[in-house]
Amino acid sequence: MRLYAVTDRAWLNGRTLPELVADAIAGGATFIQLREKHATHDEIVALARELMPICHAAGVPFVIDDEVEIAREVGADGVHVGQSDTACADARRLLGDGAIIGVSVQTVEEARAAQAAGADYLGVGALIPTPTKPDAVDVTSEELARICRAVDIPVVGIGGLRVETLDVLANSGVDGAAVVSALFAADDAQAAARSLRARLDEMLGGGESAFPALPPACAALPAVLAIAGSDSSGGAGIQADIKTVAAHGLFAETAVTALTAQNTMGVRNVLEATPTFIAEQIDAIFEDIPPAAIKIGMCPSAPVIEAVADALTRWSATNIVLDPVMVATSGARLIAEDAVHALEDRLIPLARLITPNMPEAEVLAGFEVRDEKDQERAAVALADRFGCAVLVKGGHGVHDANDVLALPPTETADVGAGVRTTWLRSPRVDTENTHGTGCTLSSAIACGLARGLGLEESVAAAKSYLMGALEAGLNLGAGSGPIDHMWAYRPHQKVPV
Ligand SMILES: Nc1ncnc2c1ncn2[C@@H]1O[C@H](COP(=O)(O)OP(=O)(O)O)[C@@H](O)[C@H]1O
Ligand SMILES: Cc1ncc(COP(=O)(O)O)c(N)n1
Ligand SMILES: [Mg+2]
């Protein structure tokens, strides 16, 4: 609930509330509350019906202020109630266990009572004097911190919060900030949300998984091409790529390099496409719907690699993310040993980014990659050698799932400087179900690039999309199962914490 947006139609200036909400979500709002103090029942219902699909398309929960009956009528995710509104326990009885119920509180006693009555989260404030009520600071930072310590449900701070005043939340233990005018009175709600969200993530650390908002409907969606192998079980390879691209609201194209007979337990057989046929697929795509970015996955042999490299060179392809797939999560080899040279000589030089896991980085760098120091050393060595960006993924490490990104001077606009590194850290999700994580990550990065994001931004967004897919807890198959590419589209039953 990092950036919780409470609607207000006081500053529309010709814009509509759905437009502003879509902008807020595109900028990083993670929760929407419809708040209408003076509207009629029918107006609130109509607004809710417009806003709900926008929120749900982006995986953002939608609740309504006070109006429990309307929340039930329209099927909202829940309600937010104040101390003098419907009691939390009554709202729970009316809306059921699956609903999200938030309660406004100002003291530890109220907070404990709300939690005991079944609240899912608390809103605490007002924290800052507002221009209309300059002296009315209702809740001090100290009381806010006491409240956060007293309950185990998430708490959001509210009341006069703007980018410049978010500091009052520091070290309090809150999960996020609720804002009204900082978003809805802004000229550019998306830009406002982006700066609020950036400051909150910086202050509160990491940030919850933010699903990249979908691009608006238009006649020409950016296309993303996946050049990779098919995984019959649907969790990795071309299938993971298509699902990832579709989940990002973009248009997926494919050139299949090989078919695998595969499931969560292993790869049973591989049938390579002929180099000529692979080239024909790529030519057909570029002659008609040229992709804005390309992800390359499994390329099983030197002749396949040559064909892909020749075709991409012919078309002067850019924005290439190369996942140098060598071994499947299940342990099966997916590339001939003698093909590694072809990969190094022909394909890596075309890539903007390569994304080896630790064993693959070891093969490419020629030294052991066992810990974070090795990861960083390999990333820098490879970025130096190939002049492209390098993400050495840490999924095979022992502690957290930390990846290191090495950026060559061409990516940092720091001519004269050397390779710069930056770490993308996330906790390890406690699961065996990681089939296709590498495929998914590289496709998601290509999606960011296709939408015009920078490389670092694309990698960070992709990592948080991947975390959502892992955390969704899909559990299919007897081996290392697939992740949930569509996690952000599931109806939210619970407050994301
Ligand atoms: N259990 C996990 N929890 C969180 N992130 C993970 C987990 N396993 C892998 N990852 C992440 O998934 C991505 C793919 O990592 P990795 O497993 O190293 O590559 P590959 O799938 O190519 O073998 C990386 O961003 C890594 O940090
Ligand atoms: C066809 C195909 N391509 C790639 C992978 C790698 O999977 P992972 O993303 O788990 O490394 C795979 N298992 N199958
Ligand atoms: Mg991989």
TrEMBL record:
<dbReference type="InterPro" id="IPR029056">
    <property type="entry name" value="Ribokinase-like"/>
</dbReference>
<dbReference type="Pfam" id="PF08543">
    <property type="entry name" value="Phos_pyr_kin"/>
</dbReference>
<dbReference type="GO" id="GO:0004789">
    <property type="term" value="F:thiamine-phosphate diphosphorylase activity"/>
</dbReference>
<comment type="function">
    <text>Condenses 4-methyl-5-(beta-hydroxyethyl)thiazole monophosphate (THZ-P) and 2-methyl-4-amino-5-hydroxymethyl pyrimidine pyrophosphate (HMP-PP) to form thiamine monophosphate (TMP).</text>
</comment>
<feature type="domain" description="Thiamine phosphate synthase/TenI">
    <location>
        <begin position="3"/>
        <end position="183"/>
    </location>
</feature>
<dbReference type="Pfam" id="PF02581">
    <property type="entry name" value="TMP-TENI"/>
</dbReference>
<feature type="binding site">
    <location>
        <position position="66"/>
    </location>
    <ligand>
        <name>Mg(2+)</name>
    </ligand>
</feature>
<feature type="binding site">
    <location>
        <position position="65"/>
    </location>
    <ligand>
        <name>4-amino-2-methyl-5-(diphosphooxymethyl)pyrimidine</name>
    </ligand>
</feature>
<dbReference type="GO" id="GO:0005829">
    <property type="term" value="C:cytosol"/>
</dbReference>
<comment type="pathway">
    <text>Cofactor biosynthesis; thiamine diphosphate biosynthesis; 4-amino-2-methyl-5-diphosphomethylpyrimidine from 5-amino-1-(5-phospho-D-ribosyl)imidazole: step 3/3.</text>
</comment>
<feature type="binding site">
    <location>
        <begin position="33"/>
        <end position="37"/>
    </location>
    <ligand>
        <name>4-amino-2-methyl-5-(diphosphooxymethyl)pyrimidine</name>
    </ligand>
</feature>
<dbReference type="InterPro" id="IPR022998">
    <property type="entry name" value="ThiamineP_synth_TenI"/>
</dbReference>
<dbReference type="InterPro" id="IPR013785">
    <property type="entry name" value="Aldolase_TIM"/>
</dbReference>
<keyword id="KW-0511">Multifunctional enzyme</keyword>
<keyword id="KW-0547">Nucleotide-binding</keyword>
<dbReference type="GO" id="GO:0005524">
    <property type="term" value="F:ATP binding"/>
</dbReference>
<dbReference type="GO" id="GO:0008972">
    <property type="term" value="F:phosphomethylpyrimidine kinase activity"/>
</dbReference>
<keyword id="KW-0808">Transferase</keyword>
<dbReference type="GO" id="GO:0008902">
    <property type="term" value="F:hydroxymethylpyrimidine kinase activity"/>
</dbReference>
<dbReference type="InterPro" id="IPR036206">
    <property type="entry name" value="ThiamineP_synth_sf"/>
</dbReference>
<comment type="pathway">
    <text>Cofactor biosynthesis; thiamine diphosphate biosynthesis; thiamine phosphate from 4-amino-2-methyl-5-diphosphomethylpyrimidine and 4-methyl-5-(2-phosphoethyl)-thiazole: step 1/1.</text>
</comment>
<keyword id="KW-0479">Metal-binding</keyword>
<dbReference type="InterPro" id="IPR004399">
    <property type="entry name" value="HMP/HMP-P_kinase_dom"/>
</dbReference>
<dbReference type="InterPro" id="IPR013749">
    <property type="entry name" value="PM/HMP-P_kinase-1"/>
</dbReference>
<feature type="binding site">
    <location>
        <position position="160"/>
    </location>
    <ligand>
        <name>2-[(2R,5Z)-2-carboxy-4-methylthiazol-5(2H)-ylidene]ethyl phosphate</name>
    </ligand>
</feature>
<dbReference type="InterPro" id="IPR034291">
    <property type="entry name" value="TMP_synthase"/>
</dbReference>
<feature type="binding site">
    <location>
        <position position="85"/>
    </location>
    <ligand>
        <name>Mg(2+)</name>
    </ligand>
</feature>
<keyword id="KW-0460">Magnesium</keyword>
<comment type="similarity">
    <text>Belongs to the thiamine-phosphate synthase family.</text>
</comment>
<feature type="binding site">
    <location>
        <position position="133"/>
    </location>
    <ligand>
        <name>4-amino-2-methyl-5-(diphosphooxymethyl)pyrimidine</name>
    </ligand>
</feature>
<feature type="binding site">
    <location>
        <position position="104"/>
    </location>
    <ligand>
        <name>4-amino-2-methyl-5-(diphosphooxymethyl)pyrimidine</name>
    </ligand>
</feature>
<protein>
    <recommendedName>
        <fullName>Thiamine-phosphate synthase</fullName>
        <ecNumber>2.5.1.3</ecNumber>
    </recommendedName>
</protein>
<keyword id="KW-0067">ATP-binding</keyword>
<feature type="binding site">
    <location>
        <begin position="130"/>
        <end position="132"/>
    </location>
    <ligand>
        <name>2-[(2R,5Z)-2-carboxy-4-methylthiazol-5(2H)-ylidene]ethyl phosphate</name>
    </ligand>
</feature>
<feature type="domain" description="Pyridoxamine kinase/Phosphomethylpyrimidine kinase">
    <location>
        <begin position="231"/>
        <end position="484"/>
    </location>
</feature>
<dbReference type="GO" id="GO:0009229">
    <property type="term" value="P:thiamine diphosphate biosynthetic process"/>
</dbReference>
<keyword id="KW-0418">Kinase</keyword>
<keyword id="KW-0784">Thiamine biosynthesis</keyword>
<feature type="binding site">
    <location>
        <begin position="180"/>
        <end position="181"/>
    </location>
    <ligand>
        <name>2-[(2R,5Z)-2-carboxy-4-methylthiazol-5(2H)-ylidene]ethyl phosphate</name>
    </ligand>
</feature>
<dbReference type="GO" id="GO:0000287">
    <property type="term" value="F:magnesium ion binding"/>
</dbReference>
<dbReference type="GO" id="GO:0009228">
    <property type="term" value="P:thiamine biosynthetic process"/>
</dbReference>
<comment type="function">
    <text>Catalyzes the phosphorylation of hydroxymethylpyrimidine phosphate (HMP-P) to HMP-PP, and of HMP to HMP-P.</text>
</comment>
